[in-house]
Amino acid sequence: MTTEPRRLSTAEERRATVLRTAIGAFAARGYFGTTTSEVAKAAGISQAYVYRLFPHKEALFTAVVEHCFARVRASLEEGAAQATSSAPEAVLDSMGESYARLISDKDLLMVQLHAQAAAVSEPTVREAVRAGYARAVEYVRGASGGSPEQIQGFFATGMLCHLIVSIDADGVDAPWIRTLAAGITHY
Asked: For 164, what's the count of Cα atoms within 13 Å in the CB-facing half-sphere?
């Protein structure tokens, strides 16, 4: 009986593991409430190794933010590819539907919300959030061919989706919820 030698993880594999673990940790406790030692423990590595992969907590969090924006981009691309016509409205509707499904992943939604909150006082996080939105807006503009007003409406509706999902609007039957949620698809 031969056994294969134990294969050690590469730094990139460990980095990906830490990143996946950090998404859950930051989603649960936010940028300010999460420590690198908590991420290290959850990933099964030492805190020192986390710092070898990410030089500081800001670098780890901005990597998480960038990863989440990459998932958003992939979702938007999927939606654009599934549009029933090339009319801006159809492309935007299809991208919106795809995005609504994506944010049903509560970890991704929470990271986005925590990133926006941390961006208020953390310049590095602010730059990561700005860069992520810049890329998303330019992609949506190019893929949809929509007007500036349509693109603004698309992102405004996305922010409203964040609110509706985060406050569990389905759990409330009140006129103000019906007003906010009218026409908004969420899962």
From this structure: 24
